[in-house]
Amino acid sequence: MLHAEGVSLEAIADTVGTPVYVYSRAHFENRYQMLLDAMAPLDVVICYAVKANSNLGVLRVFAELGAGFDIVSGGELQRVISIGAEPQSVVFSGVGKSVAEIDLALKLNIGCFNVESAAELDRIATRAELLARVAPISVRINPDVDADTHPYISTGLRENKFGVPVGQAIDLYRRAAANDALDVHGIDCHIGSQLTSVGPLAEACSHLIEIVDELKNSGIQIEHIDMGGGLGVSYSGEREIDLDEYGRRLNELIGERDIKLLLEPGRFLVANGGVLLTRVEYLKPESCAEHKNFAVVDAAMNDLLRPALYQAWHDVVPVTTPADTTAEQCWDIVGPVCESGDFLAHERTLALSEGDLLAVLSAGAYGMVQSSNYNTRGRPAEVLVDGSNFQIVRRRETTMDQLRLELNEG
Ligand SMILES: *Cc1c(COP(=O)(O)O)cnc(C)c1O
Predict the structure, then answer these.
(1) 93: CA distance to ligand 1 center in Å?
(2) In this predicted structure, what is the pLDDT of residue 324?
(3) Is the pLDDT score of 162 beyond 90?
(4) Distance, CA 220 to ligand 1 centroid (Å)?
(5) What's the mean pLDDT when you consider all of the chain?
């Protein structure tokens, strides 16, 4: 019988229903501490990337650990503020910050804008001047390194839309330094997600250090280097990124410089701290397609998009040990949504019966946050486990929750 910390997953499914996301506080805490330890003795601030899992209960865990936050929208900023986090601990990333988002961030006095273009720098300066504020900025450098990951989650190549080319960085910093509405704080990059080797990250860091040193020579002092997130995790037993090596390389590269390190991990902190529980609705052995066995479960692509979007692999395991494992067959685990792309897993060897409870593993990052109401399905509930207790940190969405926005109030 599978447990999350001291709580049986079956008990959660029985109480809250399925599909449901279940998260482990202890896992989040352990991962956070692991990362801190690996970076020592560097002065490091971990800014949790909110977009990986933005549930308020999850944000609270990281705020209590002393984390900062990396946000990519005004909505995420409001989430962070709503749990009482310190605005100074927030860095604001993203290529398309609107005037309204910039104004909100300026009024709340956030820690830093991670600027992605010359046009954005100008817009932030204009808004800051108008609001009589000084905007803290960092320039996101596109170091043109190959992060060797899925093309949809690679962000540090010249052809990606993110950041400013190395060759334009110095000019942009000069422009920022000359503007009274802007205050140069840092330099940043984020070269991609699910990175499994340190090489590209170290290469990116050395590009940033070169720029830092060149800026120092022209009288512009950089206070922090933000290496972004992207640390890869294990989805099916493959090796994770070598944290100790990453820490060692960053310590070597930054050396004696009086510079703070910021990191923006999302997936690394939460992916393996979450599962999606789902029940088998119907079995369709050797159905329409010859030699294809389908298990139709009550979770679908609208609940967990990663398999459909990135062909991502998630392990799927039974929550209770099946009575008869000789009945194992090869199953495609599919949802009720009307799309052939609606699958959670292909060709898994499992002994299944109708009503069985399954856990889709490693679903803590980019799971619930990418959910939708496609097919007018309500989003799943979310549960946070802490030791032998669990708490519903988001209730299941009802159809009425969805219809309310469309019903004519008059
Ligand atoms: C998505 C993102 C992150 C987090 O990425 P992970 O792969 O989840 O660690 C960090 N920084 C920026 C700018 C991002 O866009």
Answers:
(1) 9
(2) 77
(3) no
(4) 27
(5) 95
- DSSP per-residue codes, 29-81: HHHHHHHHHHHTTS-EEEEEEGGG---HHHHHHHHHHT-EEEESSHHHHHHHH
What is the C-alpha separation between 71 and 51, in angstroms, rounded? Answer: 7
DSSP assignment of 251-285 equals: HHHHTT---EEEE--SHHHHGGGEEEEEEEEEEET
Task: Among 28, 53, 190, say which to mutate for ligand 1: greatest number of ligand atoms within 8 Å of CB.
Answer: 190
- Provide the residue ranges of all domains of the chain, joining segments of one domain with +: 25-267, 271-402
- Kindly give the number of the ligand 1 atom that is closest to the alpha carbon of 229: 9
Mutational pocket test of ligand 1: of 62, 141, 193, the residue with most ligand atoms within 8 Å of the beta carbon: 193
Q: How many other CB atoms are found less than 10 A from the CB of residue 182?
A: 23
Whole-number Å distance between alpha carbons of 248 and 341 = 42
Please give the CATH topology (third level) of the domain spanning 271-402.
Lyase, Ornithine Decarboxylase; Chain A, domain 1 (2.40.37)
Ligand 1 mean position, distance from CA 323 (Å): 42
- pLDDT at 330 > cutoff 70: yes
- Say yes or no: CB of residue 229 within 6 Å of ligand 1: yes
Taking a C-beta distance cutoff of 8 angstroms, is the pair 200, 145 a contact? yes
Q: Single out the residue of 83, 86, 89, 114 nearest to residue 101, CA to CA.
A: 114
Q: Give the mean model confidence (pLDDT) for residues 372-377.
A: 98
* Alpha helix ranges (H) inside 218-242: none
Span 232-257, mean pLDDT?
96
Between the CA of 161 and the centroid of ligand 1 the distance, in Å, is 14
| Ligand 1 atom with least separation from CA of 192 | 7
**Quick one: tokens of 196?**
């499994």
Does the C-beta of 232 come closer than 6 Å to ligand 1?
A: no
Supply the CATH classification number for the domain 25-267: 3.20.20.10
Could you tell me if the CB of 190 is within 6 A of ligand 1? yes
**CA 265 – ligand 1 centroid, Å:** 6
* Biggest distance spanned by C-alpha atoms of the chain: 73
* Closest Cα to atom 3 of ligand 1: 229
The first and second tokens of residue 278, run together, are: 């789902």
Query: How confident is the model at residue 222, as a pLDDT?
Result: 98
Catalytic-role residue among 47, 189, 205, 338: 338
**Is 338 known to be catalytic?**
yes
Helices (H) and strands (E) in the chain, counts: 12, 20
Q: Ramachandran region of residue 107, left (φ > 0), alpha (ψ -120 to 50) or beta? A: alpha
